[in-house]
Amino acid sequence: MHICHVNLSKGFRGGERQTGLLIRELAARGFTQALVCRATSPLREHLADVDNLRFHTANSPLGGHRLGRRGVDLLHAHDGRAVHWCLLENALGGAPYLITRRVPNPLKTRASTRLAYRRSSCVVALSRAIETGLHAYDPALTTRVIPSMCAHLDHDPEAAAAIRQRYPGKFLVGHIGALVNKHKGQRHLIEAARQLAPRCPELHFLFLGQGRDEAMLKAEAEGLDNVEFLGFKSNVGDYLAALDLFAFPSLEEGLGSVLFDVMEYRVPIVASRVDGIPDIVEHQANGLLVPPADASALAEAIETLYRDPDYARHLAAEGARRLPAYSPSAIADRYTALYRELTENR
After folding, report:
1. Helix axis angle, 295-307 relative to 309-322, nearest 10°?
2. Hey, how many other C-beta atoms are within 10 angstroms of the C-beta on 32?
3. Which of 133, 223, 262, 328 is 20 to 30 Å apart from 149, CA to CA?
4. CA nearest neighbour of 246 among 265, 219, 226, 273
């Protein structure tokens, strides 16, 4: 089977990491694949060692069509621009396409977007919340729910130990994500840190990531000795291995695939009960869920796990037990079955 993936993102974030993980898994199964991406896409370097993968260049939804991709059985759009690219490619050459929808935001109502989704063979939603939004947008869409996969991040035990040594006697609460409060809700975690500072002085909050709200969030945290911004880190696994708790106060989240990596490192989770997060975190089973934008509830949940380490370990162990369902192999199995279903129906 020949699959042509399309990802026209400029950067390398969660969607691009998931695109790369899927391509690697399919290559291991003998798939012939192509990837349409920007000339400057980090995916080119990230996937340079993958067998039976050809790269094609498109810097916009209007460019790079009909570049000799003969024998393509299916196009797979991995981001919003790619959806429109696949619509035009389908019109030019007739190749069917599916879409992976990663975010819960309402879809645009313009005619080209509606047409692109209606002409797709299937829309894969990362979570039930995203699927619900798709059906509200167009009840006639064919959908499937297939979550993201665990990235199996590496870590160096010595590096993780060195991070711990920088914070003697501290209980490390970590957050990893783009510093964009509208999506990730970091202001509420900062406020939770402020509330916890007098009664839990051992707690120390580490924020990993960059983003447009970095200056604003640092201003919010001014004067708090228990909050530290570490910027972008490529060795995320080392930090996860050093954490005592992971806080995820998102205000909107298609799924939250970083939570799989947290679960793999057996770190207990406190997260918002919003969008796709409850697909991963079951309250009081493998983590604690709190209402979004509620700093007091967030602080209370963090304090609960801080003061009850046995309960925290139990939640973390249950998270790790559930992780095989989100392994790259398990998710690739689900995509492979869907690819075959769609090509056979064609």
Report:
1. 100
2. 17
3. 133
4. 265
Q: Do residues 105 and 84 lie in contact, with contact meaning Cβ atoms separated by under 8 Å?
A: no
Domains and CATH numbers, the chain: 2-149+327-345 (3.40.50.2000), 157-325 (3.40.50.2000)
Q: How far apart are CA 41 and CA 231, in angstroms?
A: 22
- 204 CB-side CA count, 13 A: 16
Does residue 68 have a pLDDT over 60?
no
pLDDT band at 160 (very low <50, low <70, confident <90, very high): very high
At residue 218, the pLDDT reads 98
Q: 99, 44, 35: which is closest to 67 by C-alpha?
A: 35
Indicate whether this model's pTM tops 0.70.
Answer: yes
Q: Using CA atoms, how far apart are residues 271 and 259, in angstroms rounded to an integer?
A: 9
For the chain, the average pLDDT equals: 95
DSSP state, residue 177: S
pLDDT at 70: 67
Q: Is 67 helix (H, G, I), strand (E, B) or coil?
A: coil
Q: Kindly state the tokens that stand for 4.
A: 């042509």
| The pair of three-digit structure tokens given for residue 7, joined into one six-digit string | 């990802």
Of the candidates 250, 249, 246, the residue with the CA atom closest to the CA atom of residue 267: 246
Asked whether the beta carbons of 193 and 156 are under 8 A apart, the reply is no
Q: Alpha helix locations (H) across the chain?
A: 14-28, 42-46, 80-93, 111-118, 128-137, 157-165, 181-184, 186-196, 214-220, 236-242, 258-264, 277-280, 295-307, 309-322, 328-345
> pLDDT for 107-141, tens place per residue?
988 999 999 999 999 999 999 999 999 999 999 99
